[in-house]
Design goal:
This protein has about 210 residues and is mainly α. It has helices spanning about 5-10, 20-35, 40-55, 70-75, 85-90, 95-100, 115, 130-135, 155-170, 170-175, 180-190, 195-205.
């Protein structure tokens, strides 16, 4: 099944309007790799589109936004900040990434800079040195994303990395049962934006003719 730009535009009416360049790159790379990752049924495609479009702020963001205020840090990362440290790190994305991603996911200490270097990138954010190392070894990944992690945020690796993550985490299984909640938890680690993801899934379901019982 070949995806078209018009299908996305119709499903997003009244919600968002990605640019032609963003849509053209997304559609081209989707059609390049979808069969390889068995994104080959209306349910799987609808779920993938709903999740990746939401995660990427409708294709506008292929790098993690870590530009938090002090209040935002306390709400989002209470484990890593208190009132004093939040003020010291506020509005400094690089320092924030190095703190919250230190000593996990294969990253080194805060001083190593790995948290910022291996911050989330792609339509579904690839995060942490371990994930970059694993993806770099994947046969279809033709660049060394460990030494050049910024390449993951750009065409066409932004799509390939997202599909690789999708397959690695068996999200097609959730898609086959139209389980938006399960897919969201795998991708997000929680249910952030669940209602919007569910709305997008319903929109794409209609677009691809998925019948509801």
């Amino acid at each position: 099944m070949q995806l078209t730009k018009q299908q996305i535009v119709r499903a997003l009416v009244g919600i968002a309007s990605p640019t032609d360049e963003q849509l053209n790159e997304y559609v081209a790379s989707f059609n390049m790799w979808s069969a390889t990752f068995q994104l080959n049924t209306p349910k799987r495609i609808a779920m993938y589109l709903a999740q990746t479009l939401y995660e990427s702020n409708f294709l506008k963001a292929t790098e993690e936004n870590l530009n938090y205020s002090a209040d935002g840090l306390l709400k989002t990362f209470p484990k890593y900040f208190n009132a004093q440290t939040a003020q010291a790190y506020a509005r400094n994305p690089q320092k924030i990434a190095n703190r919250v991603y230190a000593n996990r996911m294969g990253n080194g200490s805060e001083a190593s800079g790995d948290g910022w270097k291996y911050r989330g990138r792609a339509y579904i954010q690839l995060t942490g040195k371990n994930n970059y190392m694993e993806f770099s070894k994947y046969d279809l990944c033709t660049r060394n994303v460990v030494t050049n992690p910024d390449s993951v945020s750009k065409y066409y690796l932004n799509q390939l990395a997202s599909m690789w993550f999708w397959e690695k985490n068996k999200i097609n299984d959730a898609a086959d049962f139209e389980n938006v909640e399960k897919a969201t938890k795998i991708i997000n680690g929680g249910l952030n934006g669940y209602s919007n993801r569910a709305l997008l899934y319903r929109r794409f379901s209609r677009e691809f003719g998925i019948k509801k019982v």
